[in-house]
Amino acid sequence: MYRNSVLLVLASLGIGNAQLNPNQGAAMMRFACSQLVVERLDPLVSPGVIGSPHVHQIVGGNSFNASMAPVAYDPPSRSTCTSCTFSEDFSNYWTAALYYKARNGTFKRVGQFENGGLVQNGGITVYYIPPYDGVSNVTAFRPGFRMLAGNPTLRSTAGESRGICHRCFEGDNFTPFGGAPCTGNDTSALPDHFCAGGIRTTVTFPTCWDGVNLDSPDHQSHVAYSTIPFEPYYEPLATRPYTAAQERGKCPEGFPVKLPQLMYEIMWETRPFNKKELWNEDGSQPFVYAMGDATGHGQHGDYIFGWKDDSLQRAINARCRNDKCKELKSQSNEAAMSCTVPQTMKEDVEGNEWLEELPGGVMVN
C-alpha cells in the first residue's frame, strides 16, 4: 500500500509519468528527516530565547540551538550528525507541533507515521524540486540563507498564506493520495471531519529570491512566490501544450533569482482520535497547533540552510531523484534516527500523563 501511494504522489507531481510531458526530465529529491528534538526553541523568530512561545518539532543537524547567529553560524562545521537521509545535509527544518485537546481541556501531542515507504522516526519529509522543464538550472541556497513560510498568527482565510495546506486522507493507509499540494479538497484549515487515513500537512516555500539578502527582518521579504506557487505545476497535455515558462511560473519584479522548491510533508497520526466521543461536544475537530491555533491556518515552517560545500547545487544540477543520489553521501535509516539532541528547554511536551495546558501556557484561540 505504501509503495502504491508513493507512485501515486510521484505521478501527481509529474515524476515517472511521461504522459504529463514527454520532453521533461524533471526530478525531485524526496527524503526523510527524523525527529532531532521537540521543544520550545526558535533561533529564527526568537533568537537566543530558551523557551520560545510555542513547541516545534525540529529535524536536521545536531548543532541546532537557540542562538544561531546569521551567516556567522555555520551548521556543516558545527554539527557532528544529521537526522536526515543525506549525511551532507546539516540544515535545520522545523514546524509547529500538533496537539489533541480532550473535552476536559487537557492535551496530548499527536504522533506521526512514516510517509510513503520512507523510514523515519516522526520528523518531516523534505523535498527539493528543480524546474519542471528538466533543463533550466536554479541557484541552490547559499550559506547563511534562512526563510519562513506561513504565518503563525493567522486564524482565518483572510490574508491566507500561500503554500500551507492540509489533506484529509479519506481512505485507510492514506489512499487515494491525490494530486499536487493545495489542490482538490486540500484546505489551509484543519479538516472538519474524521480522516480515516490521517492528515498530511504540506509547507511549501517561495522559489524567487532577491539575489542579495540571505535573510530579512520578517524572514520572508527577501523571497517571493512565483505566479504559479508550486514546482512542478502541470496540466494534461490535452488541455495545454507544454512550455517551460508556463510550467515554472514567473518571479515578480525584484526577485530575479530562481531557487529550488523546498517543501515539507508532515503525516499526522490522527486515526486513534476518530471517535465521536473524542471530538468536541459540538462536533468540531479537536486538534490544536502548539501556538494555540485550533483553525490550522497558522501552521508554518522554518528553514536554516546547512548543506556542506556545494553538495546541494551538485545534486540539483544532476536532477537527483528521491533519496538516492550519486552526487551525495547517504547514511542508513538507523544512523539518521539515532541523531538526536536533548531538550534545552526541559519540559514535558508530549503529554504522556496529559498536559493541563499547552507548553508555555499558550491559550487556544
UniProtKB/TrEMBL annotation:
Signal peptide: 1-18
Keywords: Signal
Organism domain of life: Eukaryota
Pfam families per UniProt: DUF1996
Segments forming domain DUF1996: 42-307
Name by which UniProt lists this protein: DUF1996 domain-containing protein
Classification lineage: Eukaryota, Fungi, Dikarya, Ascomycota, Pezizomycotina
